[in-house]
Amino acid sequence: MTKPSPQPSSPSSAPSPPSVPTRIRVGSAPDSWGVWFPDDPRQVPWQRFLDEVAGAGYEWIELGPYGYLPTDPAVLAEETARRGLRVSAGTVFTGLHHGSDVWDRTWGHVAENAALAQAMGAGHLVVIPSFWRDDRTGEVLEDPLLTAGQWRDLTRLTERLGREVRERYGLRIVVHPHADTHLDGEESVTRFLDATDPEAVSLCLDTGHYEYAGGDSVELIETYGERIGYLHLKQVDPAVLAEVVAEGMPFGPAVARGVMCEPPSGAPALEPVLAAARALDVDLFAIVEQDMYPCAPDVPYPIALRTRSFLRSCGV
């Protein structure tokens, strides 16, 4: 049987954007499917996440919380390969400002994540500082400001972490400023960068979290470009953020209220962020994360399709 000829595009169809050379590789993460925990009945099964992230047109993923995706490298390699997916990074939470007493416990957590990331061919490990208040209940766990001694521990041990992860697993750590942690906005991030060795420590700039804390992503890229080792693409809803700040709301309830929103409807505008990143002329991952835990299972995929289309219009 003869196949029907393709129909011409309608006059209202938008042309495809011109091809723009770029060294930015775009991906997504379990976070964009409402996944925050290794096991939670409100989260989509890992098989559905892999099916949908591939269906949305992404080729790169992060591992997400350790244990959500299969931790057997052979199983995970088979599941990702047959969907045309590759792994860019693993993710760990650390509390290194607490000093050497937490090193062994921290390293145990880091090592299992790094080993899986290495086995999957990833080149990065995203390191997120621990929360100073509970991200769901709002209970204050410790002072939101670090002492001078805690800053020394944070920077010294993060450098050690970077060197040991590189030596043992061949991965580069990228430290992720995050809402409700001691690294969030311009003051803490620039202090951290100025106090750490660029050979050991790079930054994962999450555009949404940096905006959440009042930072300017474009300015940070232009000022500290050599330290930007990885990007998370995310936007905040300015109106919801204003409510969150006014109410002193912790991060978890803020996400449930919708503080992180679908691009391009929020801030910062991602076009100038991506333009600044392209100007660095380095290989860089830009991983889409739209925090929305918890969410209905049918919500993430349409958003992922629209977001991937939007990013193509930005030239990546």
TrEMBL record:
Pfam families: AP_endonuc_2. One of its GO terms (molecular function) is isomerase activity. Residues 1-20 have a biased composition (Pro residues). It comes from the Bacteria. Residues 50-252 form the Xylose isomerase-like TIM barrel domain. InterPro entries: IolE/XylAMocC-like, Xyl_isomerase-like_sf, Xyl_isomerase-like_TIM-brl. Keywords: Isomerase. Signal peptide: none annotated. Residues 1-25 are annotated as: Disordered. PANTHER family: HYDROXYPYRUVATE ISOMERASE (PTHR12110), INOSOSE DEHYDRATASE (PTHR12110:SF41). This is Sugar phosphate isomerase/epimerase family protein. It comes from Streptomyces bikiniensis.
